[in-house]
Amino acid sequence: MKRVGIRDVAQRAGVSISTVSNALNRPHMVSERLVERVRSAADQLGYVPLQAAQQLRAGRSGLLGMTVINIANPFFADMVAGAEDAASRAGLRVLVGNSSDDVAKERDHLELFERVQVEGALVSPFGPLEPWLERLRGRGIPVVLVDAVDDTGELPSVSFDDVAGGRLAAEHLISTGRRRLAFVGAREEVRQVRERLQGARLAAAAHPDVTVEPIWTRRTTSDLGRAFGEQLAARSPADRPDGLITSNDHLAIGVVHGLISQGVRVPDDVAVVGYDDIEFAAIAGVPLTSVRQPAREMGRTAAEILLARIAGTAGAELGNVVYQPELVVRASTAGHALRAATHG
Amino acid sequence: MKRVGIRDVAQRAGVSISTVSNALNRPHMVSERLVERVRSAADQLGYVPLQAAQQLRAGRSGLLGMTVINIANPFFADMVAGAEDAASRAGLRVLVGNSSDDVAKERDHLELFERVQVEGALVSPFGPLEPWLERLRGRGIPVVLVDAVDDTGELPSVSFDDVAGGRLAAEHLISTGRRRLAFVGAREEVRQVRERLQGARLAAAAHPDVTVEPIWTRRTTSDLGRAFGEQLAARSPADRPDGLITSNDHLAIGVVHGLISQGVRVPDDVAVVGYDDIEFAAIAGVPLTSVRQPAREMGRTAAEILLARIAGTAGAELGNVVYQPELVVRASTAGHALRAATHG
DNA sequence: CTTCGATTTCGAACCGCTTCGATTGAAGAG
DNA sequence: CTCTTCAATCGAAGCGGTTCGAAATCGAAG
């Protein structure tokens, strides 16, 4: 019932505590005979060293911290998986904090990271975090931003070119003949969203007859998307956008469903572009054209930069990595899909 | 750059280390004046106690461990959220280990739980884990199974009546006129899957003219589902099942897509029932009839039982909670939906 | 002005492990 | 046979907190 400690192993093997530690962690310092004996004693007792004690002594935790906005979103789930890959290769574990779109939770996680003394943090920020990040830095905990860039340029980051993503989506719609575009997203405050809109406007600027109407929803669930789609269907055709850029696939799939349920045809009446290219985009009722972000690679790269920072080597030159978007064209915009694809 | 420790706070406040500790953790033992002084010193320095040191001394970590089969599946994501709710109410954090359908990873997490000395574990088992669970028990770490039951009856559990789920799905199909049912799932070894099949067979047994054909896929992704749907479409109509029960919604949505893409009508030619009622079930191309499991409640309840076990109180009577299924009828089986719903 | 008890503060041990310097013993050199 | 050298093993310090019992302080009662 009691925990098996290093003492128990030492006693069983008939050696001192320090010899057990050496045999297990630095076998070259101990005679083969004893290494063997200690190992078997440890196995028999099922000894597992207590991480807290190791950490206390070593001053390091073997942990990376990572916060993500919403783990239920496959984009972030993949990002985490990528980071875990890179970390485990370096023998570190990743402590994942899921903010669930909640600023308080996000800060909570950052504090936890400090308490457990993570060796570095990957942060995909949701709310404004400058003071917290500054503090981590003050504590000597390196931080790498993921899917975000630092305005002050102090923090390295791995991000995605959202302006290009928005532009790519808009250009695709324009090239398939759409003229009255709308951009549907939640929260103008979120940088990613702002930039995509900006990209869309940039693309529109090249065509005097193209307009971009921004529309804000409260959140980006498929339910809200559906409600919005129905609402949109109620507008008169002349007043209705004929091309939609949405801020993620959940929202987009909902919108498409809402439109169709009210008899609006997709893509004939309204073309829709999503964002993230999640698993369901390909098999939605109307397969969804979507902007693909290389989530897994982003997570992996971010972790690698962080690890380099931690090691103190080669940190500087890996400052800010920006990934480029890729448009996956499917039926929801299929009008002149092939022609568009070669354009983009 | 250096960590702020309790010593730094003590020095700044001009008191001893132990007084700082007392002022922070047991303020009633210290004069108000000093509590104030210590607090402000701690704030100014940004002192955060090191969790490893606290844990080492206290012998407890303030952590619950939880393993899930696949966090990307909303069913498990919700389960985790429920458990976190209950745990945080008790002041504990949840360390989540995502197995990603990988037995080795799952065991890894269990070992981590031992190393960090979690106070209890919620385990949603994927592979065979008896020896590991036995070991945790031997270490005095209480375990509660989630979405599983212990054959030996030693471990408390919160599960879902999968036999009833399978039966409910099959009865619904039968009552809408289907006769050649098929059950599509991955891995017969997984208990949940076996039981759902068993439930389906039970329902079929009441109707001499109804058959249930089990079909095994390698995994349950929508991609495989789609491939399988296309394959099914290639069968001659007479040879093809007219009612499908799938082991989750991802698979089901893929199958529906595959069928339709080959000109097979859903639900007219083949009706499909999914499992989990995920967000996309409602807005799939053909909205999906699905068996709903109360994931969040299950997670919450499991955590509550675990907490009771940890506290040593009231553990026994909360042995095995079994949740009942609910069928959400949508278009993918809509034939005689209303009549069926009143039946079931 | 003592004395005593209550209250507040402090010193030191301890949690489990790693690591450094010291000790032991055996082997080789003189 | 003694002295040195080196490898193998051990003892003890210390990581950063918490907590227990001792010490100090203070006020009130004698």
UniProtKB/TrEMBL annotation, chains A, B:
Q: Which InterPro entries match?
A: HTH_LacI, LacI/GalR-like_sensor, Lambda_DNA-bd_dom_sf, Peripla_BP_I
Q: Does the keyword DNA-binding apply?
A: yes
Q: Does the keyword Magnesium apply?
A: no
Which Pfam families does the UniProt record give? Answer: LacI, Peripla_BP_3
Domain (HTH lacI-type) spans 4-58
Keywords assigned by UniProt?
Answer: DNA-binding, Transcription, Transcription regulation
Instruction: Report the domain of life of the source organism.
Output: Bacteria
SMART domains hit by this protein = HTH_LACI
One Gene Ontology MF term: DNA binding
Q: Which PROSITE patterns does the UniProt record give? A: HTH_LACI_1 (PS00356), HTH_LACI_2 (PS50932)
Q: Which PANTHER family match?
A: HTH-TYPE TRANSCRIPTIONAL REGULATOR GALS, LACI-RELATED TRANSCRIPTIONAL REPRESSOR
Protein name stated in the entry: LacI family DNA-binding transcriptional regulator
